[in-house]
Amino acid sequence: MGLLAICMILAPLSPWLKIAVAVYGFMGSARGISGVAMNTSIMEQVPPHFMGRVQNTFYFAGTALQIALALLVGAVAQANLVAGFTIIGMVYAVAFVSAMWPVAMPVPVSETSPAG
């Protein structure tokens, strides 16, 4: 996510189109890997009977945020394209910072046999 933030902010400043296209290709791959990692992390943390509800909630909230962000970035990019890219880069930077927060993992309870 940190690398995505840096690439998104620097991509429109590239003096050559080939470099900007390569950076975009790299960012697309990294974004796909990040999505898989996020879904895997959710599956590890959420009880199986809540999985469908949690995934639907994430998708609905994500879609709403994406629409709001698209309107904001579109309005800003009309005045300054680099500023529009920077807004998206800052969203990735916030995601990077939130992903780096330490989270305490619950200690699994070991099962004991009644005979034991």
Structure summarized in a few sentences:
This protein is mainly alpha-helical.
Following the backbone from N to C, one meets helices and strands in this order, namely: HHHH
**For the report, how would you describe the main beta sheet?**
none
Count of the separate structural domains = 1
First-last Cα distance: 47 Å
Q: How much beta, percentage-wise? A: under 5%
Poorly predicted runs: none
Task: Give me the count of strands.
Answer: 0
The helix fraction, in percent, is: over 70%
Overall shape: elongated
Describe this structure in words.
The protein is mostly helical. It is 75% helix and 0% strand. The protein contains four helices and no strands. The protein has helices at 2-10, 17-45, 51-79, 81-100.
Per-chain topology:
Blueprint: H1 2-10, H2 17-45, H3 51-79, H4 81-100
Helix pairs in contact: 1-2, 1-4, 3-4
Keywords summarizing the entry:
4 helices, mainly alpha, 116 residues
